[in-house]
Amino acid sequence: MPDTVHLGSGKVRELYALDPDRLLLVASDRISTFDVVLPTEIPDKGRVLTGLSGFWFARTRSICPNHLLALRPDGRSTECRRLAMLPIECVVRGYLAGSGWKDYGATGLVCGHRLPAGLVESDRLPEPIFTPATKAETGHDENISREDAARIVGRDRLDEVERLSIALYQFAARHALARGIIIADTKFEFGTDADGRLLLADEALTPDSSRFWPADRYAPGRAQPAFDKQYVRDFCEQTGWNKTSPGPALPPDVVAGTRARYIEAFEQITGIRFADYVSRPDVVLSADGPLPR
Ligand code: Q0Z
Predict the structure, then answer these.
(1) Is residue 46 within 6 Å of ligand 1 at its C-beta?
(2) Which of 7, 176, 284, 293 is the most buried (most CB within 10 A)?
């Protein structure tokens, strides 16, 4: 890509500058598990995640404006407004999993929220909670209290991102549950434009930024299978891999099964055939589903 400056790499994504006001976010087919990027790619994973993000950005504009300008014809690249990113992760949890479950077990609290006694792993919470975290350059994001988050972004800004994050989560979780997928929790990132307007940015409501659980297998009291990475995790456990880099190469059946799960999640949530997205990525951006030919 001539005229594009590479700004940075995430574990599975690349970021480029298009001009002073616009960025290009490219989702690769790389997959990580236990925080390690594996040597084998999952074909079309980047397209699935880009299409899902685009779908949510198009449908949540009335809740919160966002950075999306266009999807590229390759289906894996998003042109977006360049923003000043807030230095916190805006996590919303509707269910008790991951670090929320750990913190609850240790203290009965999650980021300062006092939860009812007697909850079990993966329980649905009485209402979704906002649990901000710091952005760790390397290693794990760290949960922080509302007070710490307020010291970082300011009280008014924090109130605003909390309200928007909960509203975005409630909209998406309700939509996904009606289509058989539980969004247990999710992470949003916000930024401000030159006029100080707050916009939703980065990726939104994808399996890489959220926990997606198949609703038909949901049973609290144990960890839930991930919608997307379960075959990969099961395979990695079988190999006896010690979860440090490099990870194991994935056999063809694990790749095919995982690819099928990503595509299934895309089609279940969007109601759009993945093949239609590949031939015309803009289909996810029209509010009424697939466009007429
Ligand atoms: C996103 C990231 C990736 C590495 C910065 N609209 C925006 N304006 C300014 N900055 C960002 C965005 Cl989305 C931004 N990241 C995360 C993405 C590779 C890091 F593809 N960092």
Answers:
(1) no
(2) 284
Our answer on whether the CB atom of 200 is closer than 6 Å to any ligand 1 atom is no
3-class DSSP assignment, residue 285: helix
Cβ of 38 closer than 6 Å to ligand 1, yes or no, is no
Q: Is 115 in the pocket of ligand 1 (CB under 6 A)?
A: no
Which atom number of ligand 1 is nearest to the Cα of residue 26? 20
pLDDT band, very low/low/confident/very high, at 266 (cuts 50, 70, 90): very high
Alpha-carbon distances, residue 2 vs 6, 9, 18, 64 (angstroms): 11, 18, 10, 33
pLDDT of 287:
67
Q: Which atom of ligand 1 is nearest to the CA of 67?
A: 6
Q: Hey, what are 3's tokens?
A: 């005229």
Q: Are 16 and 4 in contact (CB under 8 A)?
A: yes
Beta partners for residue 198, in sequence order? 192
* Cβ–Cβ under 8 Å, residues 184 and 172: no
Share of the chain above pLDDT 90, in %: 94
Q: With 80 as the cut, is the pLDDT of residue 181 above it?
A: yes
3-class SS at 193?
Answer: coil
Q: pTM of the full predicted structure? A: 0.97
Indicate which residue's Cα is closest to atom 16 of ligand 1: 202
Those residues whose C-beta lies under 8 Å from the C-beta of residue 256, and which sit 6 or more positions away, are: none
Q: Where are the beta strands (DSSP E) in 13-123?
A: 13-19, 22-27, 32-33, 36-37, 68-71, 77-81, 84-85, 88-95, 109-110, 113-114
Residue 160 has pLDDT above 80, yes or no: yes
Token pair 């456990």: residue: 237
- Ligand 1 atom closest to the Cα of residue 80 is 6
- Residue 84 Cα to ligand 1 midpoint, Å, equals 10
Atom of ligand 1 nearest to the CA of 15: 20
Q: What are phi and psi of 246, to 5 degrees?
A: -85, 150
Q: What is the pLDDT of residue 293?
A: 47
